Prior knowledge:
The protein has 311 residues and is of the alpha+beta class. The chain has a single domain (1-311), classed as Clavaminate synthase-like (Double-stranded beta-helix), CATH 3.60.130.10. Helix content is 20%, strand content 21%. It is built from 6 helices and 15 strands. It has helices at residues 18-23, 25-35, 71-80, 157-167, 169-177, 231-245; strands at 15-17, 36-37, 54-55, 59-63, 92-94, 125-133, 152-155, 184-187, 190-192, 201-203, 209-212, 251-254, 261-265, 284-291, 304-308. The chain has a 7-stranded mixed beta sheet. Strand 8 and strand 9 form a beta hairpin. Helix 5 (169-177) crosses helix 6 (231-245). It starts with 14 loop residues before the first strand and ends with a strand. 40% of the residues are buried.
Amino acid sequence: MRKNLWDCHGVEDSQVLYSEVMADDTGLFSMLAKIVCSPFSATNTPDSNHCILQHRNGYVLVNETPYDSAEPTKELLERIAFIRLTHYGGFYDFIPDLAMADTAYTNLALTAHTDTTYFSDPAGLQAFHLLSHHPAPRGEDRDATGDLGGKSLLVDGFRTATLLKQSHPWAYNALRCVRLPWHASGNKGITIAPDKYYPVFELDDAKNLHKIRWNNDDRGVVPLNTPHMSVNMWFRAARIWNTMLEDPVNQFWLQLKPGTVLSMRSLYPCYLYIPWTKQQPWQSSTTGAFSMAAVPLPARGESAEVTVCTL
């Protein structure tokens, strides 16, 4: 299985053009093949016994996407799959005004995390498009460095988990064995939990890392009755894991610009964290999207207006 593990430098071969993706299936395949890879080419008929998508880079940047409206972004997502409706809606706008009880609706800095941990079938692909990014109006405070903020942080979860397994195998085992309650609550009439408890690290039948769930804002109480595993041991393991996620060598930062759509695989070996950066009162209008997902992608920027869809 091919996996391109990456660190703070990201992956060089991770960009495609919007026009090529929209032109034909070869362009679409080229885009998806940068996120995942399969054992068959775009021109060959796949063997039904080998049609398994395998993890590759985990993300792709789609350049030269029209941004005069959110419609081209929606069309790009629908090029991949149908739009899934959730309790957040389908393709929609929101601003960080706490209209929903979710940290994505604030200007708070978010720590490294995965989204939709509380779904039995979490997000497959996520996408994000920054439609505009402007400085604060004259007379308002800005960052002393002149930085507009709103950068995106990506972390290769598969690589980081591999490093954890090598350096602290007991910690990797703790995050693999202890099943946790995940949930979404706080909005009137909305309480969501998956069909069962899930660990931070999910393995497949071959005992290979398959999915990762990590979001302290969505995590419930660590069970007290896990065999051969104390609560203190789990928290020690979680602290080591989180420290590795915060290590600058594992963090790939990028500033999205109008015309560039970030599409990424979530909750899988090559998954991405996208937190807010430190915020100042500037204005920004953004658009984001989930492909094969269930909730809106956190916005970047101050007073951001975000268009989000789920696929």
